[in-house]
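Support case: user asked for a sample of complex input and structure output to validate their parser. Sending the pair below.
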Amino acid sequence: MQYPERIETRFEKSNEELELECTSWRFAVETNNLSPWKTIPEQCGSYVKDYVMGRGYKVDLERVSTEAGIYATSLQLSADGKDVWVFDVDETLLSNLPYYADHGYGLEIFNPVEFDKWVYRGVAPAIEPSLKLYEKVLNLGFKVFLLTGRSEKQRSITTENLTKAGFRSWDKLILRDSEDHDKPATVFKSEKRSKMVEEGYRILGNSGDQWSDLSGSFPSDRSFKLPNPMYYIP
Amino acid sequence: MQYPERIETRFEKSNEELELECTSWRFAVETNNLSPWKTIPEQCGSYVKDYVMGRGYKVDLERVSTEAGIYATSLQLSADGKDVWVFDVDETLLSNLPYYADHGYGLEIFNPVEFDKWVYRGVAPAIEPSLKLYEKVLNLGFKVFLLTGRSEKQRSITTENLTKAGFRSWDKLILRDSEDHDKPATVFKSEKRSKMVEEGYRILGNSGDQWSDLSGSFPSDRSFKLPNPMYYIP
């Protein structure tokens, strides 16, 4: 037999525990402590939804943008035009939150066919704090290279979407070519950074929501990890 | 003129805002998004205290240990005895929380004289989840290298403290020699990892509470970032 008070107490404690557990899981995601994962933990579904739809995600995005901006402004750029800031696209410049809102915020296994349909609509909104940083680094004189795991086939829709979202100019948009499709993002992106360095560019800043945007070889002088508790790309 | 309800609402909102702001700050710390910092934000004093003294820190430490253990167990080690796990010491194996509890949990600027007195007492307790991981990797057959920013002069007290805390054996204990004292930790630790690789060792795992333990050159195959919202070492 159970007493109502006891049930209530258990329920409250369980909520607090869940908050603790899911915050800890999010910390493990953001620090890259986890093994590759395919979906968010079932019990953290509401937590992740509340975070990305609420102020937590916004505040985190704003902080990353501000910190990156302070760093960018602190640098003395060379006159040779070889100083580069690298941006990832999805969940870094463009937000696919409208798609993920319809697909359980990471609870569902990634469906590339459905996601491609969303990409081809070309309506992903800008992540506003990233747009602010983007304009700042352009104004400071950085070369801006966009390095995305999207396919070369999606070049024109990606260009269209970025432009519509307010990203008006860039120096390179590097997408995955046919020979890159089987490479993990870390390998693909490291190879492309290696090429930049070969060509004499200096990668001073790098913004991405995945560690596969930021780690690997030829890393940027400083990397800025945007939050993303919804999915993992190796 | 202000109405009591309004004041109360403002106060509640301000607490919620503070929680949001300090959690966001903690994530920025743990993802290495911040510029070098000397003290925690004044307004996050209570937040950091509650986190490190409460269950949040414990749960996070346990998760890092568990994830690292799963990875360690998944590896097939070679027979040549060259597979290495690197551990940092302070806030990774040993906890200086008793010291920081007496010094504002990061609110005070680091005082090397006072901290050294604490180190020479040799009473820092083990971080229990790390001790569990430590024993696991030893049992799995890893070589265990301790790589710490502590001074060579502190070798004997460090050995004594580690032993007393339950860390019973290791293959190397690498401390800062006189020529290393002016090097940032990232440089010192990268050089030491470089030497390990030169000697034919394979660094498969690395546990540390600072990004300067984990990033730089010759990084480990996988790195595990332990939480530390109290101080920053470049």
